[in-house]
Specification:
The protein is built from 5 helices and 2 strands. The protein is mainly alpha-helical. Helix 4 (97-107) packs across helix 5.
């Protein structure tokens, strides 16, 4: 019996129970794709009749839960200062010598001018400078690793070419 004939069947009498007619389930509104998948499933012995999915609500919170365990929200999570070493790392994929210049920031001291951030206090300036230095060092280390990886790949390529030319 096909799915179409199930939904368009007329009420039948069930002789075992009573004389009340048994109606088929109401027709579901499914997309043509879902109906096609059901037809393929019926042909290949897939799932049975598609029923509507029950909407489940999430479980209630535990009674001993307190909101203090959740992480705090900030206006700009994981904000990172935009540094020169970061740009050199990104552009190094196009021109690897930029990675060599980026490594320089590992060893160069960060100096500021006297009028830098003149509207801030000395503590704020020191905090900003230390954050900038930490970020600059992180990206400079990435430049170093990228440069070393580039040289390792270059050496492997050169060795492979030399070995392959000697065999022929």
């Amino acid at each position: 019996m096909s799915r179409e004939s199930e939904t368009t069947a007329t009420p039948t009498l069930d002789s075992r129970t009573s004389s009340t007619p048994t109606l088929p389930p109401p027709p579901s509104h499914h997309s043509p794709r879902q109906l096609h998948d059901d037809a393929l499933g019926d042909f290949f012995g897939g799932r049975g009749h598609r029923t509507r999915t029950q909407h489940r609500t999430p479980p209630p919170y535990s009674p001993d839960w307190d909101g203090e365990k959740l992480p705090g929200y900030s206006s700009s999570p994981d904000y990172e200062v935009d540094t020169v070493a970061r740009h050199l790392f990104k552009y190094g994929f196009f021109f690897p010598l930029f990675w060599a210049v980026g490594v320089y920031f590992l060893f160069a001291p960060m100096r500021v001018t006297a009028d830098w951030q003149s509207d801030r206090t000395e503590e704020e300036k020191e905090k900003m400078l230390s954050e900038m230095r930490a970020t600059e060092a992180k990206w400079a280390k990435r430049c170093l690793w990228a440069l070393l990886s580039f040289f390792v790949c270059l050496v492997i390529l050169i060795v492979a070419v030399v070995v392959s030319t000697r065999r022929h």
